[in-house]
């Protein structure tokens, strides 16, 4: 039965290409210009043509990664609409091995399938059965819990409709786990280790089952000589020799890796895409590989994400498609013995591995295969990375450098949290320590909300403290990407001004480069503090800092991260300099002077980054922006006029800006002071203002004409009816957060999303939109190639044309 056929590449084309080593899109491109399959050589074997259908002698497992926790109100139920934000892929000689590796590649807190205290084990039988019946992201762990509780394969099949073959394979893994739990580590034989590892069990799982530690398991395993062998993906099931070193691990006899003795560097990727850690980091990994190849190094990429360019077999000299865990990375280090290891470019995933890798290198001091010294981590040291992550250590550094931070504290109990909040005053920003993407971050306005947050969002204890900072209302947030070398030189890559006010996560906020409203004195302070921080932390490579500037012009440091940030690709494209390439060369020992990057580049054009948000995929969740990141991608608009660049970014992000019609305005008490200015901006563009009673009353007192409309609960026709009837073209809503807003406001915002009406939830975003609409009505939008923006003569000609066009209006 054919369900669907699409004559194009699909999202599974990348997966199939990585799974087989047969690059579908590359072959399709050649076919489109006239080649036939028998004329295109196979890159991997160099002997067979593309008409030779790939065959494989291994098993590939892909598992999607979800982010329902980012969208409260949306049920974690899987349907015909795609909701995953990323995926992991793993290869193994058997299904069990490949499946276990894929589970741990997801980086969701599991070291494999089973051998863990999963939450589902605490559920009662009816809850468990419900989660077997209803497809959800964690159903595979519900199957594990059901088997542990004695449920038979047939019963699980009847509830879940998962094929019995897969269930039987999983049941075997549960049986192996029972065997392991009946043994101590010292009683495991070499044959036991081989059989268990062939089924994909990690050292961490074995440690859990045998009540030992991961280090003890690793030591015992290596003492038996049980180490992984690496097989090559060859597209032909070993019928022909593979020339391309694209490898996966197994515990199956002969190792095909054949590592070289060249000078080489291991680059750790970012794992599966997720909110807060996506292809921005993969961009950095790829650029690092390209630059170091040009510098004469053999580059080795290690990653588990089939969606990315870094896992193309020809991006690096060698590719290991492996989970990014301590065990798997150390296995590759032992085999390859690279001169350097780069952990800065893959986001939080390799950063979490940096300390254990450094401890291993300090203890064992492995020599590099090239013979030019010991294997070491390149760039900023893991200790400096930890100093920036650890709040107490970082605060001490900031105090010594005389850098201002918002008042705050570290709470190790509920009582601590309430005392800190009382001392610094509400509103406060609360978040767990060591998070990426603003996970669990919230703005809290009173004691009751803080208690509720501590009860529902995080468990506070001395091991997992909560950070509490003063929320800077109406502050402008600034992002800075800087580059530092090992000779003490620091250069600012770019300073970005956020359009949304501080309190909206930087990943969800639109931002502008170069800055537009920041005073020279504030910029001087930001440059000085960034340079001091980079030198104090001994940064070698990239560093990202975030600042807030209050209405009175005070500058505060919010955070500093000595690693590549998600803004590096945006800044690189905006200024015309590949920062990730420069950073990789700096880590290899070159100075910024040698590279030729010695001062900040201020472009003549303006670049605007805008976030792409997936709210339409998650019915039930609100569309408000806040301190927790929710965007799944971003776009860039570029022009010589700020408003046009912003308009291009909005259009690229899917926001169809209206040039006329009705604007619905509803602002909360915190943002009411901006209401008059906002209303006059849209009235000046020819729009009519529509508001409910509170906002309408405020505007009428200012002498502004408003069309009143009922709230949703006040009867009909209400604001929702106007949306449905096409009588509202743009909505600006800032949430009050009260119970009425949670019902009326949320419903109205969801309706705007359903009817594809542009909705703006911040004042600054609304003002920028008004400016963009004004320029769209008065100027012609020009299309230019990115390279042309860096052509000085063309910039001058274009500026003259703009001036003459403006004078004729």
Automatic annotation (TrEMBL):
Pfam families: CPSase_L_D1, CPSase_L_D2, CPSase_L_D3, MGS. One of its GO terms (biological process) is glutamine metabolic process. It comes from the Eukaryota. Residues 395-588 form the ATP-grasp domain. It catalyses: hydrogencarbonate + NH4(+) + 2 ATP = carbamoyl phosphate + 2 ADP + phosphate + 2 H(+). Residues 655-796 form the MGS-like domain. Belongs to the CarB family. Its cofactor is Mn(2+). It comes from Salix koriyanagi. This is CARBAMOYLTRANSFERASE FAMILY MEMBER. PANTHER family: CARBAMOYL-PHOSPHATE SYNTHASE [AMMONIA], MITOCHONDRIAL, CARBAMOYLTRANSFERASE FAMILY MEMBER. Pathway: Amino-acid biosynthesis; L-arginine biosynthesis; carbamoyl phosphate from bicarbonate: step 1/1. Coiled coil: none annotated. Keywords: Amino-acid biosynthesis, Arginine biosynthesis, ATP-binding, Ligase, Magnesium, Manganese, Metal-binding, Nucleotide-binding, Pyrimidine biosynthesis, Repeat. One of its GO terms (molecular function) is metal ion binding. One of its GO terms (cellular component) is cytoplasm.
């Amino acid at each position: 039965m054919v369900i669907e056929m699409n004559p194009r590449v699909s999202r599974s084309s990348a997966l199939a290409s990585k799974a087989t080593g047969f690059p579908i899109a590359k072959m399709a491109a050649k076919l489109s210009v006239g080649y036939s399959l028998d004329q295109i050589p196979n890159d991997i074997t160099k002997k067979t043509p593309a008409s030779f259908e790939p065959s494989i002698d291994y098993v590939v497992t892909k598992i999607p990664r979800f982010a329902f926790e980012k969208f409260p109100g949306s049920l974690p139920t899987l349907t015909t609409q795609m909701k995953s934000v990323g995926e992991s892929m793993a290869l193994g000689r058997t299904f069990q091995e490949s499946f276990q590796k894929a589970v741990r590649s997801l980086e969701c807190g599991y070291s494999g399938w089973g051998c863990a205290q999963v939450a589902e084990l605490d559920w009662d039988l009816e809850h468990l059965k419900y989660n077997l019946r209803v497809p959800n992201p964690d159903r595979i762990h519900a199957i594990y819990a059901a088997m542990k509780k004695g449920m038979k394969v047939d019963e699980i099949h009847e509830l879940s409709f998962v094929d019995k073959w897969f269930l039987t394979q999983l049941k075997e893994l549960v049986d192996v786990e029972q065997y392991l739990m009946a043994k101590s580590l010292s009683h495991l034989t070499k044959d036991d280790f081989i059989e268990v590892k062939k089924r994909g069990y990690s050292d961490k799982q074995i440690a859990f089952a045998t009540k030992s530690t991961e280090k003890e398991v690793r030591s015992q395993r290596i003492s038996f000589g049980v180490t992984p062998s690496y097989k090559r993906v060859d597209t032909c099931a070993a019928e022909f020799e593979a020339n391309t070193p694209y490898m996966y691990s197994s515990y199956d006899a002969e190792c095909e890796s054949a590592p070289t003795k060249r000078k080489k560097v291991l680059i750790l990727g970012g794992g599966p895409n997720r909110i807060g850690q996506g292809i921005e980091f993969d961009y950095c990994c790829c650029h690092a590989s390209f630059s170091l190849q040009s510098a004469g190094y053999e580059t080795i990429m290690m990653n588990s994400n089939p969606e990315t360019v870094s896992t193309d077999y020809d991006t690096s000299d060698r590719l290991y498609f492996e989970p990014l865990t301590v065990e798997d990375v150390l296995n590759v280090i032992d085999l390859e013995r690279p001169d350097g290891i780069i952990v800065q470019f893959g986001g939080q995933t390799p950063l979490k591995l940096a300390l254990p890798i450094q401890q291993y290198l300090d203890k064992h001091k492995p020599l590099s295969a090239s013979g030019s010294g010991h294997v070491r981590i390149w760039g900023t040291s893991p200790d400096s990375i930890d100093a920036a992550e650890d709040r107490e250590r970082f605060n001490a550094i900031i105090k010594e450098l005389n850098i201002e931070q918002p008042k705050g504290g570290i709470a190790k109990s509920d009582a601590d949290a309430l005392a800190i909040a009382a001392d610094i005053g509400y509103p406060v920003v609360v978040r767990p320590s060591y998070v990426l993407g603003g996970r669990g971050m919230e703005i809290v306005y009173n004691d009751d909300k803080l208690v509720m947050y501590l009860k529902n969002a995080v468990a506070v204890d001395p091991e997992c403290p909560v950070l509490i900072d003063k929320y800077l209302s109406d502050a402008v947030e600034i992002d800075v990407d800087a580059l530092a070398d090992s000779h003490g030189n620091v250069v600012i890559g770019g300073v970005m001004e956020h359009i949304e006010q501080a309190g909206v996560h930087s990943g969800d906020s639109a931002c502008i480069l170069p800055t537009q409203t920041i005073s020279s004195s504030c910029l001087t302070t930001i440059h000085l503090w960034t340079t001091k921080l980079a030198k104090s932390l001994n940064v070698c490579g990239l560093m990202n800092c975030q600042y807030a500037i209050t209405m009175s012009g005070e500058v505060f440091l919010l955070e500093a991260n000595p690693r590549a940030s998600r803004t590096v690709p945006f800044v690189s494209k905006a200024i015309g300099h590949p920062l990730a390439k420069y950073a990789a060369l700096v880590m290899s020992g070159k100075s910024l002077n040698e590279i030729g990057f010695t001062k900040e580049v201020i472009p003549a054009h303006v670049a605007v980054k805008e976030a792409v948000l997936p709210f339409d995929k998650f019915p039930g969740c609100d569309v408000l922006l806040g301190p927790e990141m929710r965007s799944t991608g971003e776009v860039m608009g570029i022009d010589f006029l700020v408003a046009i660049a912003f308009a291009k970014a909005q259009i690229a992000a899917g926001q169809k800006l209206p040039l006329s019609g009705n604007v619905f305005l509803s602002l909360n008490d915190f943002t009411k002071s901006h209401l008059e200015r906002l209303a006059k901006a849209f009235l000046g563009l020819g729009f009519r203002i529509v508001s409910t009673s509170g906002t309408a009353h405020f505007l009428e007192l200012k002498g502004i004409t408003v069309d009143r409309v009922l709230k949703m609960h006040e009867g009909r026709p209400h604001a929702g009816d106007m949306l449905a009837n096409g009588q509202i073209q743009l909505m600006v809503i800032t949430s009050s957060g009260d119970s009425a807003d949670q019902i009326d406001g949320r419903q109205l915002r969801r309706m705007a999303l359903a009817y594809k009406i542009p909705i703006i939830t911040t004042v600054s975003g609304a003002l920028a939109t008004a400016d963009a609409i004004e320029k769209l009505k008065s100027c012609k939008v020009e299309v230019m190639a990115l390279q042309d923006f860096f052509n000085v003569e063309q910039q001058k000609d274009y500026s003259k044309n703009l001036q003459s066009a403006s004078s004729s209006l």
